[in-house]
Inverse folding.
């Protein structure tokens, strides 16, 4: 009898759970009932909203917008593979999203197709310029991160005690190599003007049409944006080769670089990427010398707020030092005031165009 | 009611199907517990019960509303949304929206069925092909290469594309098979490591001419021309992605049933898997059996890769079968769930595909992360792999020896 009772209880529990799945009970979902009327939606890449990189930044932009304007509800969908971009975008279109944000070059095709098929649907895409001639609502958000990476390279060269700095990327794609390219330019500029010979490992730029978004060269790449162990291995290798400051351009993989720096004590530092390291990765702040950031959050936030207010302008936006779309942050208290002043001068020079961020314009130090 | 009595007896005596269904129930219970423990609205409602009488009723209602909304979203997103379907039946409109959930589930199930059968065949031989994902990647690359770089009439081009996918996978399966047969290198290590080789080889091909999309520095391939794609079953204008890959998956299932149950080589597979020493003693060439099993498994895994790309994106990029989208890894669990039998694998694939597709719908509707679907999938596999646990929880009658053989027998051998 006891057995039967226990069985019954368990079956009952199962039935209760299944019962809640009862088909056709079309009640509204209580979870989202208190939310606003304007839906802002982001389809993330396979990295998801916790990728320590642009997916996380884009989602933060939506959340900030929702906080600022109570009429906005933010929701997201993570793509499980490239094959789920299109169904995810379509799901949000059918849910009546006021603006759909997509993230990254890999979503170029899916975004362009959806924008062409739904000319009045508002889209914003991060780090890419899709070709969607029929659309009236597509905003392309791109960033000249070689400008602040140049400052990062200059600071790294000036702060290096060993005279060797290094960088590596998640994958050999333009949104990554643009950072590495600017970093090398900053180091070479430092060498030329200070008559020093600081070396850069991990990226050797070659000629290419940088104005057209080609940042060619040979370098060290992880092959993905998730393998922190690989990031640690690569970084330890750079340390062994004499580098004391490493600039990982690989999203969350950079945490592997931090782990490598932790192992050697305070002898090595990391230059963080995409977001302000001392804000996004507070626990590891002591290891960051500075952060080369990209204003994905701010630009996405502005696009969403504009869409909710009805002032959304399609077209393209390019983040620069001049418009605050890219910024360099100092994270380490050891950076001398004189260097900070120099960086301010360099910033003005880059803004006005008198200083080039093309590494091939400078001699190899 | 003698028939009811017999049904009850059957339930009590733990058939594999009973175990699988109860594992699903337990998986959903685990998922519900996680939803309850992680949803702020539910936790707040229960916190409220400590302050006022009568609140437990409210808290229970909030709990059931949220868990119900999550599971309802999984169901309506992967099978059918009844109100929407009824709307289509009565008005004749909106059929695309009504059929999209089922179409998506079938789309995702196609490569999973093929890859899981590939893995199941080696399992039946007592071998472990952990490299189905790498073999599927090689198949995808080979298929896209033949589709984009060779120009042929469609009647030839599509079959040749699929054959290229099989060939790519065969190469991937042959290496560990031959290494095992002639050097004794353990196939688990070799196949596992070859997944990385395949991933990096893919990255290399996607960044080199001629496979890379021209005028492009990103890791992305050319797009397969229309004649080499597995076309949507109901035409491109239908908006439904379900494609002729279904025919391929059905053919593979029938082939596997024939291979394992009707052919002499399949008999050798199963005999070697059941007892390699006895098989050798009775004159079965172990080396030959091993290599053939790996060749067939690799070929099918390659076919899964090319069927996936030819039926959905028509191009591959750096994310192809990477991370959680690694169909070859999911295939290992599906093969386990389906007890390495083709029909069982088909049901297992449909369940996993439905959870995957429904999980996205749940995330869009309720904000509960998609990963919950993965948790449910994993819980189901754990329960299926430990039938004794399910038997104990539900107090089932003793397992009959032939009915529930632990599907993992021989792991690590």
């Amino acid at each position: 009898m006891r057995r039967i009772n226990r069985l019954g209880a368990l079956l009952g529990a199962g039935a209760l759970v299944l019962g809640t799945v009862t088909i056709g009970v079309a009640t509204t979902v209580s979870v989202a009932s208190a939310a606003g009327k304007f839906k802002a939606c982001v389809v993330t890449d396979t990295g998801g909203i916790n990728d320590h990189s642009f997916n996380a930044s884009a989602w933060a932009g939506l959340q900030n917008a929702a906080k600022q304007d109570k009429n906005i509800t933010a929701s997201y969908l993570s793509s499980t593979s490239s094959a789920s971009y299109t169904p995810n975008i379509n799901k949000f279109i059918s849910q009546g999203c006021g603006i759909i944000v997509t993230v990254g070059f890999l979503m170029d095709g899916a975004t362009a197709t959806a924008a062409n098929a739904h000319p009045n649907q508002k889209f914003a895409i991060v780090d890419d310029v899709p070709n969607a001639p029929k659309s009236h609502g597509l905003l392309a958000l791109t960033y000249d991160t070689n400008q602040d990476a140049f400052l990062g390279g200059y600071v790294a060269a000036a702060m290096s005690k060993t005279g060797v700095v290094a960088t590596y990327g998640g994958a050999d794609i333009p949104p990554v190599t643009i950072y590495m390219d600017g970093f090398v330019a900053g180091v070479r500029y430092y060498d030329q003007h200070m008559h020093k010979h600081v070396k850069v490992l991990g990226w050797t730029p070659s000629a290419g049409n940088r104005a057209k978004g080609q940042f060619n060269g040979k370098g060290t790449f992880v092959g993905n944006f998730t393998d922190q162990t690989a990031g640690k291995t690569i970084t330890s290798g750079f340390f062994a080769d004499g580098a004391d400051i490493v600039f990982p351009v690989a999203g969350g993989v950079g945490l592997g670089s931090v782990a490598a720096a932790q192992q050697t004590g305070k002898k090595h530092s990391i230059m963080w990427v995409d977001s302000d390291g001392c804000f996004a990765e507070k626990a590891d702040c002591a290891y960051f010398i500075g952060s080369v950031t990209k204003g994905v959050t701010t630009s996405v936030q502005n696009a969403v707020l504009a869409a909710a207010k009805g002032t959304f302008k399609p077209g393209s936006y390019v983040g620069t030092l001049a418009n605050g779309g890219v910024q360099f942050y100092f994270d380490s208290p050891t950076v001398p005031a004189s260097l900070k002043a120099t960086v301010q001068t360099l910033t003005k020079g880059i803004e006005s165009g008198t200083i080039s961020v093309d590494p091939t314009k400078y001699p190899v130090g | 009611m003698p028939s009811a009595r017999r049904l009850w007896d059957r339930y009590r005596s733990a058939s594999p199907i009973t175990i699988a269904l109860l594992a699903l129930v337990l998986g959903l219970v685990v998922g519900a517990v996680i939803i309850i423990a992680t949803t702020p609205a539910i936790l707040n409602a229960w916190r409220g019960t400590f302050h006022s009488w009568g609140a437990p009723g409210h808290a229970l209602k909030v709990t059931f509303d949220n868990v119900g909304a999550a599971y309802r979203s999984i169901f309506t997103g992967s099978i059918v949304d009844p109100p929407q379907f009824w709307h289509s039946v009565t008005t004749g409109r909106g059929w695309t929206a009504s059929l999209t959930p089922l179409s998506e589930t079938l789309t995702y199930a196609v490569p999973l069925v093929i890859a899981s059968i590939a893995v199941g065949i080696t399992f039946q031989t007592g071998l472990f092909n952990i490299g189905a994902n790498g073999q599927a990647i090689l198949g995808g690359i080979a298929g896209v290469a033949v589709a984009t770089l060779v120009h042929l009439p469609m009647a030839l081009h599509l079959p040749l594309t699929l054959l290229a996918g099989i060939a790519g996978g065969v190469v991937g399966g042959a290496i560990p098979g031959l290494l095992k047969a002639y050097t004794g290198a353990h196939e688990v290590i070799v196949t596992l490591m070859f997944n990385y080789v395949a991933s990096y080889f893919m990255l290399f091909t996607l960044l080199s001419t001629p496979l890379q999309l021209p005028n492009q520095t990103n890791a992305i391939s050319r797009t397969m021309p229309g004649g080499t794609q597995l076309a949507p079953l109901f035409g491109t204008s239908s908006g439904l992605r379900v494609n002729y890959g279904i025919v391929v998956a059905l053919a593979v299932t029938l082939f596997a049933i024939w291979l394992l149950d009707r052919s002499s080589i399949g008999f050798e597979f199963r005999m070697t898997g059941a007892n390699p020493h006895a098989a050798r003693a009775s004159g079965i060439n172990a080396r030959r059996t091993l290599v053939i099993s790996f060749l067939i498994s690799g070929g099918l895994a390659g076919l899964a890769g090319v069927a996936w790309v030819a039926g959905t994106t028509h191009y591959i990029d750096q994310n192809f079968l990477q991370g959680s989208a690694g169909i070859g890894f999911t295939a290992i669990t599906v093969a386990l769930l389906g007890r390495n039998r083709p029909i069982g694998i088909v049901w297992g694939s449909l369940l996993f595909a439905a959870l995957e597709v429904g999980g996205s719908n749940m995330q869009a509707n309720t904000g509960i992360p998609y990963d919950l679907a993965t948790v449910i999938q994993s819980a189901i596999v754990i329960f299926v792999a430990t039938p004794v646990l399910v038997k104990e929880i539900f107090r089932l009658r003793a397992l009959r020896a032939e009915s529930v053989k632990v599907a993992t027998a021989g792991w690590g051998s």
In short: Chain A has a mean pLDDT of 88. The first strand of chain A starts at residue 38 and ends at 44. Chain A touches chain B through 54 residues (CB under 8 Å).
